[in-house]
Hints:
The structure is a single chain. The chain is built from 11 helices and 8 strands. By secondary structure, it is an alpha/beta fold. It has one domain (4-238): Aldolase class I (TIM Barrel, Alpha-Beta Barrel). Strands 1-2-3-4-5-6-7-8 form an 8-stranded parallel beta barrel, surrounded by 7 helices. Helix 8 links the parallel strand 6 (161-163) and strand 7. Helix 7 runs parallel beside helix 8. The longest helix has 18 residues, at 94-111. It binds cytidine-5'-monophosphate (C5P).
Amino acid sequence: MDARERIILALDVDAENKALGLVEKLIGSVGAFKVGMQLYNICGPLIVHRIQELGGRVFVDLKFHDIPNTVAAAARVMTALNCFMFNVHAAGGREMMTAAVQSVQEEASRLNCSAPLALAVTVLTSISPQQLHDDMFITNRSVEQTVVDWALMAQECGMSGVVCSPQEIAPIRQACGSGFVIVTPGIRPLWSAKNDQKRITTPRDALKLGADYIVIGRPITAAQDPREAAQKIIDELEDL
Ligand code: C5P
């Protein structure tokens, strides 16, 4: 895969024109654009079509977590939107993920379109070991064990891959093997500000650890010249 194909730009902005401005600027420099809850809830699904009209692939990051029937219906919508990838919470369980995968396959074959990658979010990186124990009542395993167990469960359900922190790339890759897609945020080149990210990895190290795609926002979007910043990252990845 070409280095630029591996970069997913996080469009964490609050208006369609700001998002599309970034897409126009960076369409040749990154492989996909991530639309999260803020932008999707402001613009609705049309934002996905607008980005696609400009030639961009879209990761719809809405992290579905509901009863199987409802998540299956949402997965059908994601397939009809022709997005590149979308995600659900692994905590929704086996039945929910299986229903999502099945509905993606059915809808893709009904519409004769390609199926989006269905990704599972395991333990959110904002959850500390203490919170896993005290708030979620998972008392018999570590965060890493829980993440790996849920990644394996997602794989057994037919999910395409996971979204995880850079710390978890290596154990997931080891447990789930090479065909399983790993997408990771928390990426900071050495030359960029950390912002509020704490446990970070460079783009190069994330790929070396086994990630397939890296989600990057502010190191590119907040740079004085976003295209130059993206190119710098591509250059750092190119000789891997
Ligand atoms: O600007 P920055 O590179 O920090 O953006 C990272 C993107 O990845 C944001 O959209 C953020 O919500 C998302 N993300 C994250 N950490 C997670 C999960 C998602 O930074 N654990």
